[in-house]
Amino acid sequence: MTHLAKRTAQVMPFYAVDLFKQANALNAQGRDIISLGIGEPDFTAPAQVLETLNRAARAGLSGYTPPAGIAPLREAIAHYYSQSFGASVDAKRVVVTSGASGALLLACMALINPGDEILMPDPSYPANQNFILGAGGVPRLIPCQAAQRFQLSAADIRVHWGPSTRGVLIASPSNPTGTTIAREDLRALIAEVRARDGFVIMDEIYLGLYYGDAPQSALTLDDNVIIINSFSKYFHMTGWRLGWLIAPEPMVPAIEKLAASLAICAPSLAQHAALTCFEPEVMRIYENRRLSFKQRRDYLLPELERLGLHVPVTPDGAFYIYADIREHSQDSDDFSHRLLHEASVAAVPGRDFGPAHARHTMRFSYATGLGRLQEAIARIEHFLEMD
C-alpha cells in the first residue's frame, strides 16, 4: 500500500464542514435545519455581475489570463483599497487568485521555509494552519483572551517569539470571533514583528463587513504587510473562487512565478465579471446588504445573552458571534450535536478554532435571513427549556 505523506496526518480537520454535511443529510431526510454554522452569505452575486459574466462567456473570454490576473481587475482592486480602506496601492502589487485560499497558499509558499514557526491567535480559522503546514512551516497557536478581543497582541509577540519564529498570520475582523484589532494595538504588534525582521500576513477577508466607523486596511500602518482578501464574503461570490493578494512589489515576481505553476490563473470568467462589483450602483447593493448583516447581529446578540449564551466580546465585523455556553454545558461538542439533532439548529463547536476555549465556546453565524434567525432563537429557547 502506498504510504501517505506525513503532512496528511498533520492537517487540521474542519468540523464546520462536517457539521454542514450532517445538516444537509438531515435536510435530505425532510428535517428543516436552520444553519448558523457555515460561513457563507445567503446573498449571491447581484444581477449586474451575472449579466457581465454572461457577456464575457458569449465574447469567448474564458481562456487563460496572466498569472497575476487581468490588468483591469488588478487596477479596480487597487482603487477599491484606496477608496474604501484608505490604502494607496499600486495595481502592480495586486495578484488575483483562486479565492483567498489561493492567496494564502501563494503567500505561505513564498515566505515560509521548512521548520519556520508562524504565530497565530487561538481562536482562529482552522484552515489557515493547513496552509502553513503545506509550506513546511509550524503553526503555533497562542491562547488569546476576551480582554484582548481574542487577538494577538504586541505582548504576545515579545513573549512567544522564538529562534524559529518567522512571522504571524492574523485576521481583522476575525473568524470565529468577529472582532477587529484596535488600530494602536495593531500598530504595536506590527512594530514588534518588524523589530524581529518578521513578516505579517493579514487576512482582511471580512474588512468590508465592518460595522464601526470607516474601516482601514493594515496597509495604512505598514506598507509591507501581506494582505489576503476575497470576493467571497463582502461580494457574496463564494463559489466563484476569486480572491486577491497584495504584496510588497519586490515579492510579486516570485509570487507570479509560483502562481503560474500552481494555478496558471484564477477563473477567467469570474475575473471579468468581478469588474462589475466595483461599479457605484452595485457597490450600493453591497452596502445595503452590509447593513442587513448589522441588523442581524444587533438582533442576535441580545437574544443569545437572554438565553444564557454569553458573548464576552461584541463582534464589530464579519457575520459570526463567539459565545460562551458554560451556563448550559461544559462540552461544546455535545451541545452542538444535541442542538442539531434535538432543536434542528446547526452551530459550530469551539474545537474548530483552537484548544484554548474549545470546550466552552461555540460559533454562531448570522449569514442567514432575519426571519430564520428568529426561528432559530425560538428553537434554541425551547431546547434549553426542555433540557
TrEMBL record:
What is this protein identified as? Aspartate/methionine/tyrosine aminotransferase
What cofactor does this protein call for?
A: pyridoxal 5'-phosphate
Looking up Gene3D superfamilies in the UniProt record yields: Type I PLP-dependent aspartate aminotransferase-like (Major domain) (3.40.640.10)
Q: Where are the transmembrane segments?
A: none
Q: Name one GO biological process term.
A: amino acid metabolic process
CDD domains the UniProt entry points to: AAT_like (cd00609)
Q: Which domain of life is it from?
A: Bacteria
Species annotation: Paralcaligenes ureilyticus
Tell me its family.
Answer: Belongs to the class-I pyridoxal-phosphate-dependent aminotransferase family.
| Aminotransferase class I/classII large domain: residues covered | 32-380
Q: Which InterPro entries match?
A: Aminotransferase_I/II_large, AspAT/PAT-like, PyrdxlP-dep_Trfase, PyrdxlP-dep_Trfase_major
Keyword terms, alphabetized:
Aminotransferase, Pyridoxal phosphate, Transferase
Query: Annotated Gene Ontology MF terms?
Result: pyridoxal phosphate binding; transaminase activity
PANTHER family per the UniProt record, alphabetical: AMINOTRANSFERASE (PTHR46383:SF2), ASPARTATE AMINOTRANSFERASE (PTHR46383)
